[in-house]
Amino acid sequence: MSITDDELVAALSEHGSNRKAAAALGMNVRTIERRRSALSLKGWSPQHDMQHTVPDGFTVGGVSTLYRDGAPILQWVKSRQDSEQVRRMIDGIMSGLCAEIPRVKPTKAPKQKPDGLLNAYIVTDYHLGMLAWGEETGADWDTTIAEDMLVAWFAQAMAEAPDAEVGLLAQLGDFLHWDGWDAVTPASKHLLDADTRFPKLVEVAARACKRIILMMLEKHHRVHVIMAEGNHDPTSSVWLRSLCQAMFHDEPRVTVDMRPDPYYCYEHGQTALFFHHGHKKRLAGIDATFAAKFREVFGRTTRAYGHMGHLHHVEVKETSLMVVEQHRTLAAPDAYASRGGWLSGRDAQVITYDKVYGERTRRTIPAQLVADQLARAA
User: Rounded to two decimals, what is the model's pTM?
Assistant: First the structure.
């Protein structure tokens, strides 16, 4: 039986105990106890004179009550967003919206089928929507520049990479520079340099992802998509995954990793590939985290590689479990990074893996090469 919070509050107020309310509602008393605990997080605790709940998506951050002669006369309920509840709400919203998204029609696979190879296109910290002024940061960056460079980079990477049966789009997080109406970091609320409004940012992100996946389908027999969670876009990574899955729902050659946990894996024969943005776990020790989270895959394979972003510079570490690599970004530095001296090269790589032998080749495509090509074509 499903009842609303208001119905539960009314029953508890009328009957005075969990057991009596459960009997009146025809529910298990344990269910009532769990629901009552959830209500307390939303502000309902009559024994403490807390009678008002906050809406879905919020939890109570504090309650201040003014008493006179032992009786409450005024009360201030301070609420904050409940990130997990918000994420569950967004999942529900996206499920409904994705039902209306036009599906991409199935396409013909390329004639060549080089068995055993996989091309991993690794892009991280792209910060779509960021604004950078070249006079201040060394390079201009805005939404138009970012979209043009992203599509051109993938075109160049696919031209340089060998033919491979599988194309793996490994977007390792912070694809979007910010995560909602306010251009701030989700956790710390630091003000960010934003180029555009969020609805336009969503439109550009969706268009770019569709173009890239369609390009990959022309080169590869199968395309697997990872849209990893980053610290700048934890919520948007949810709808990015759902959007890609919905757009290519009718294309059997495309699969999308829908894992909500921010650690990802792809098994390619005897080669295991692991991915994480780097905001929850840094390079040191992440090999054990990957092996533990994907124990069965790790046990079945003989070669393992981990890939991360987040810090925008190159670092490679080989452990007894795997080779773990931290990748650069194609994006220009923003004012915060430039002023702080956190600078790095700008490039991204397409790495070719063999089912048996692991890494075979890689091509590094610098941002400047792509920028020069775009300038010549303009």
Answer: 0.76
